[in-house]
Amino acid sequence: MVLNWINQAPRRVLALISAACVAMLVFGMYLQHVVGLEPCPMCIVQRYALICVAMFSCLACVSGQKKWWMSWSALALVASGFGAFVAARQSWLQWYPPEVATCGRDFYGMIENYPISRAIPMIFRGSGDCAAIDWTFLGGSIANWSFVYFVGFAVVLLALLVRGVKARAGRFAAV
């Protein structure tokens, strides 16, 4: 049923992915500003990945030509893969916390005070606050749920791209 829906309404699927990313970002802002949870550097990177997936999916949704929506969808797939990688790394840190519990500076402090070549490794080093589990739902932390959603987005985007490539190949075979 899901594959039929992907085949029949790819723009709706892309719009749903974009809306889900926006909803996740809104929920993250709620957790930060209402509940009082401070995001760690890895959480911030996951937010940027969500923003990229949302933007690329939205652009793919509104693109008229097939080559453009496939290109935007491919970029959304890459951003989903990157977000899944960061969420998986943070989940691993939460399951196996490091001995030294210091997360270091926040993301903006690192970018402002260090060259990008030093700031990027510092972001992914993630310890201390990045390993803390401040909120759970059904036994999963925020990073665990982010990983599930990023992988879900990647699977759906991959199915959309495969569908688009097969349709294009079928059209060329008929000629």
Overall strand count: 2
Share of β-strand residues: under 5%
Name the poorly predicted regions. none
Q: Strand arrangement, largest sheet?
A: 1-2
Query: Tell me, what's the shape?
Result: globular
Describe this structure in words.
The model has no long low-confidence stretch (mean pLDDT 76). 77% of the residues lie in helices and 2% in strands. The relative contact order is 0.16. A hairpin with a 2-residue loop joins strand 1 and strand 2 (140-141). By secondary structure, the protein is an all-alpha fold. It has a two-stranded antiparallel sheet with strand order 1-2. It has helices spanning 2-8, 10-35, 41-62, 66-95, 107-113, 116-125, 142-174; strands at residues 136-137, 140-141. The chain is built from 7 helices and 2 strands; from the N terminus they run ααααααββα. The two termini are 30 Å apart.
Can I get a quick summary?
The protein is mainly α and 175 residues long. The chain has helices at residues 2-8, 10-35, 41-62, 66-95, 107-113, 116-125, 142-174, and strands spanning 136-137, 140-141.
Using brief descriptors, characterize the structure shown.
175 residues, 2% strand, mainly alpha, globular
Per-chain topology:
Layout: H1 2-8, H2 10-35, H3 41-62, H4 66-95, H5 107-113, H6 116-125, E1 136-137, E2 140-141, H7 142-174
Antiparallel strand pairs: 1-2
Helix pairs in contact: 2-3, 2-7, 3-4, 4-7, 5-6
